[in-house]
Known about the structure:
768 residues, single chain, 20 helices, transferase activity, alpha+beta, microtubule, 33 strands, Herpes Virus-1, seven-stranded antiparallel β-sheet, flat, MID2_Bbox1_Zfn, zinc-finger, Double Stranded RNA Binding Domain, zinc ion binding
Amino acid sequence: METLESELTCPICLELFEDPLLLPCAHSLCFNCAHRILVSHCSTSKPLESISAFQCPTCRYVITLNHRGLEGLKRNVTLQNIIDRFQKASLSGPNSPTESRRLQPQRPYTATISGTIAGTIGGGGGTSGGSARSSPATSSHSHQHANHTNHINHTNANHSPAVVAKMDPRISCQFCEQDPPREAVKTCVTCEVSYCDRCLRATHPNKKPFTSHRLVEPVPDTHIRGLTCLEHENEKVNMYCLVDDQLICALCKLVGRHREHQVSSLTERFDKLKAYQVSPGRVSDAVMEASKTSAAQTLENNLTNLVKRNSELENQMAKLIQICQQVEVNTAMHEAKLVEECDELVEIIRQRKQVIAVKIKESKVMKLRKLAQQIANCRQCLERSSALITQAEQSLKENDHARFLQTARNVAERVAMATASSQVLIPDVNLNEAFDNFALDFSREKKILEGLDYLTAPNPPSIRDELCTASHDTITVHWTSEDEFSVTSYELQYTIYTGQTNFISLYNSADSWMIVPNIKQNHYTVHGLQSGTRYIFFVKAINQAGSRNSEPARLKTNSQPFKLDPKTAHKKLRLSNDCLTMEKDESSLKKSHTPERFSGTGSYGAAGNVFIDSGCHYWEVLLGASTWYAIGVAYKSAPKNEWSGKNSSSWVFSRCNSNFMVRHDGKEMLVEASLQLRRLGVLLDYDNNSLSFYDAMNSQHIHTFEISFLLPVVPTFMIWNKSVMILSGLPVPDFVDGVASDLQEHQQQQMGMCRQDSPYLTGMKACH
């Protein structure tokens, strides 16, 4: 607990934090201590209110204060709660972790009593007559610092109610001045005084040296100053009854009920119980002494482990306190960021409000100016029309024929002209000028604002294996994401799969991973991969809040495609134009001789046009009606003037009429295969050193060679009749994985059939 207490101690006053402030640097400081720091910077020319910054006493970080001063800093509520709980635990008595650590065996007398009562009821010893008794023995020897309360509880369970009532009187405060004194709530073992709540707070503040005082539940004064006999008042206990497992005084042995019982001294019993922990039932002293050393060592180891565990718990608690402080700091940072972002939004809305208000006012002025002009035109036309109407009415009232004739014609023309141009003179009224078609619709923006929330890292994407495609050197990865709209970009990571099942360790080995960053779509094609190789893929969804990885996906490139190499074909073999079919042709074809061409008598073979040195590759051979062939792989150095499989550089599966066999280094072994075999599957797993043959139509395994490849190999093909066709660059079929686990056992069963010379070899020579 000392480590925990140091974590809760102010670096200024060296006491437990009181009203702690959370500084921006994540350290804490008492409010009063921070105030004293500010006061120390004051002067006549620099009052307290003008101080706007001070240094953290722990890390020297400069703390800037706002206009509120220290009140502007956040209170470390979490730390205050921890201190309150720590203080409560310190006051909870000797059973608390603090008290258990403080109770060292400085008083052997008390330790003897506590160990006797707590751990060895019925532990050992007997009467002279050899009577025995047994009672449960607890494992509390490791808690030898127990308190007197245990003694009281033990006595309550073994004595009459009258004795219990006598032992458990009301314990009064020994510090109160009032009469009667208040009831005590704690007894200080260090001071040997019992206190009520008020006197305890007055005499034992939460400051050193009082924090080291041992406080227990109230016990009588006599029990503090030394245990007295329960049956003989004022007599101190000085013996231990081995029959009743009880502390007794001298009078108990002389005249009491223990006078016939076997007893021992307290020191002897203390040493014996400390060194050995007995099991239920009695054992002889000889056995106890013989086991004393090992038992003491066991107890010491247990105590060491307990102390170590307590230290680990204290360290863990200190880390949790640091995390709590970091949570406070991060929360304060995010709260400040929230206020800042919201203030920016409010400021944007305020600015837009001003801009839109100015636009409305400008539109209003423009429309009113235009309407005013139209009103003025209407008024002018109205005045003219009114004047013309007045003049016409006066002409109609003229009774003088000469005057009427003189003015009537002129007035009639003016009236007719005014009537004809009435549409021109009267302006049109535009309803749009009334501002009725203007509207403010912020429903979309309101919906966006209502959806404001803190951003979280996107959910992990999911790789869709069924949508992924592959060729011999490319893989197209497809994935989906539930948070597609919140994802800023994707990152694709991949590496060659080595068979490691612990994907976490594999992912942590970052050196072997290839990374494709900043992918905007939910698919990507990776180029330049090794053919016939299995890869591990991860997809990472990224946004501003963080990133999350998908579950790993294992995807494989297809086998290496190849064709028959015309430069290697025997002169009595005919290849198709696409170099995928070879046919036996007895007529000798004109072909130039090259070192890589099959040339031996009867060695009617051809090789593929690729050399394979890695990966897992699968191809098939359509056998048609051919009943005499040999198909497999070989090193480049394999002889071309003899059958494949007759040397140490080639491995083949062969058929001669109705006999099937595998051949390597001149050794043959019969294998089982269907006479209806029409499609032979070949699986070359170079990385795992194996070459397997399958009946592809019936999904059946035929044979597997275990080969330690030293050089690149090339597919080889030999026929002695008919023709065969090659299908390469194929994905590995599903049925191949199903039989892989049985290959080793199958191989061991057939190895006994292997022999150097086979009668079928003679038969093949005869056929040849």
